[in-house]
Specification:
35% helix; 18% strand; two-stranded antiparallel sheet; 331 residues; elongated
C-alpha cells in the first residue's frame, strides 16, 4: 500500500552587489517563494496513516474503506463536478424494482402470493374465450367486441366463443339514444362471419340491439339467467336539436329502415314471422326468461340443476282443469 507524504521545501536567493556602479543593496537573503511538493512513496513497510475507528454498520464508511483498501488510486486526482456529491460515484446505481428472479428468491415470497402481477379482468375473461358486453353499444364498445371476436377466431377457429350480454343496446336505461343502430349491426355481422360456434348468455338485460345479439347465437346455444330480462323495441331517432325539418325527415326514414332490418333479423333467429315481430315491437316488448324461450330468443334457461324440475311443472291450463275451473273464451 503506497503512502503519501506532504512536505514543504523553502528556497532562498541572496542578491549581492557585484559592481560599484549600482547602488548598494541589502545582502541579507529573503525568501522568494515556497514550493509545495507532494510525493507518494510506495512502501509496504512505511508507517500507515492513523484512521479513526469505523462503524461497521455504516454502509457509506464501510464502502469507502473497502474501496480505499482495494484501489487507493480511485481517490487520487478525482475530477471536480459541482453537480455530483463527492465519492457517490463509487457506489452502484440503486435498483428501484426487483427482478422476477429476485422476487422468487426473496424470504417474504411464498406460494400464497402471485408470482407476477395479475392481468386486468377483461384479459382474464378473454383468456377463457369469454366476451363480456356490459355497456351500451357505443363505438368504443363495438370496436373492442369486434376485435376480441376476430382475435378469438384467429387463436382457434374450432373452439366456441362465449358472449355474455348485459346491455341496454344503443339506448340508455331511460330510453335516450347513445349510439347508432349500426353499432349493433356491426357486432352482428362480425358474429355471422365467424367460423366458431357462438354461445350467447343474457346475464342481466338484453334490450334492443343487445336482444338481437342474444338471439343470434348458435342454435341450441342461446341461454338466459333465470332473472334476466330481454326487450325488443323500435329504434330511437337521435336528438334532432336545431336541425331543419328536411334533416329530421331524413333521420326518420333511416330509423324506419333500421327498424325493418331489425324485424327481419329477429324473425330469422326467433322463428317468428316478420308480421308477428313487427306487431309486438310497436311498443316495448319485455320478456322474462320463460317468455323469451317461448318467443324463440333463447333455447335454455340456466337454472343450475332446476331445468328438469321446471320442465315438469304443469302449465296454468292444466292447473285450472284439475281444479275444475272452466275457462270462458274472451275472459
Amino acid at each position: 500500500m503506497s503512502t503519501c507524504f506532504l512536505h514543504f521545501t523553502p528556497m532562498a536567493t541572496s542578491i549581492s552587489s557585484s559592481s560599484s556602479s549600482f547602488p548598494s543593496r541589502r545582502s541579507n537573503p529573503r525568501p522568494v517563494k515556497t514550493l509545495f511538493a507532494a510525493s507518494c512513496i510506495g512502501s509496504k513497510a512505511s508507517a500507515k496513516i492513523p484512521m479513526p475507528p469505523i462503524n461497521p454498520k455504516d454502509p457509506f464508511l464501510s464502502k469507502l474503506a473497502s474501496v480505499a483498501a482495494k484501489s487507493p488510486e480511485t481517490f487520487l486526482n478525482r475530477p471536480v463536478n459541482p453537480d455530483t456529491p463527492p465519492y457517490l460515484d463509487v457506489f452502484d446505481s440503486p435498483t428501484l424494482m426487483a427482478t422476477p428472479a429476485q422476487v422468487e428468491r426473496s424470504v417474504s415470497y411464498n406460494e400464497h402470493r402471485p408470482r407476477r402481477p395479475p392481468p386486468d379482468l377483461p384479459s382474464l375473461l378473454l383468456h377463457g374465450r369469454i366476451v363480456y358486453i356490459g355497456m351500451p353499444l357505443v363505438p368504443a364498445v363495438t370496436e373492442l367486441v369486434v376485435a376480441e371476436l376476430m382475435y378469438l377466431q384467429w387463436m382457434d377457429p374450432k373452439e366456441p366463443i362465449y358472449i355474455y350480454i348485459n346491455s341496454t343496446g344503443t339506448t340508455r336505461d331511460d330510453g335516450e339514444s347513445v349510439g347508432m343502430e349500426t353499432e349493433g349491426f356491426a357486432i352482428y355481422d362480425a358474429m355471422m362471419q365467424l367460423k366458431n360456434e357462438i354461445h350467447t348468455v343474457a346475464v342481466g338485460a338484453a334490450i334492443g340491439q343487445a336482444c338481437l345479439l342474444l338471439a343470434a347465437g348458435s342454435s341450441g346455444k342461446r341461454f338466459m339467467m333465470p332473472h334476466a330480462k330481454a326487450m325488443i323495441q323500435q329504434p330511437r331517432v337521435p336528438s334532432s336539436g336545431l336541425m331543419p325539418a328536411s334533416d329530421v325527415l331524413i333521420r326518420a326514414r333511416e330509423a324506419i329502415t333500421n327498424r325493418d332490418t331489425l324485424v327481419e333479423l329477429l324473425a330469422k333467429h326467433t322463428g317468428n314471422s316478420q308480421e308477428a315481430v313487427a306487431n309486438v315491437m310497436r311498443r316495448p316488448f319485455y320478456m322474462d326468461s320463460t317468455r323469451a324461450r317461448e318467443f324463440g330468443v333463447i333455447d335454455k334457461i340456466l337454472w343450475r340443476g332446476q331445468e328438469t324440475i321446471m320442465a315438469d311443472v304443469a302449465p296454468p291450463e292444466a292447473w285450472d282443469k284439475n281444479a275444475g275451473i272452466k275457462v270462458v273464451d274472451g275472459l
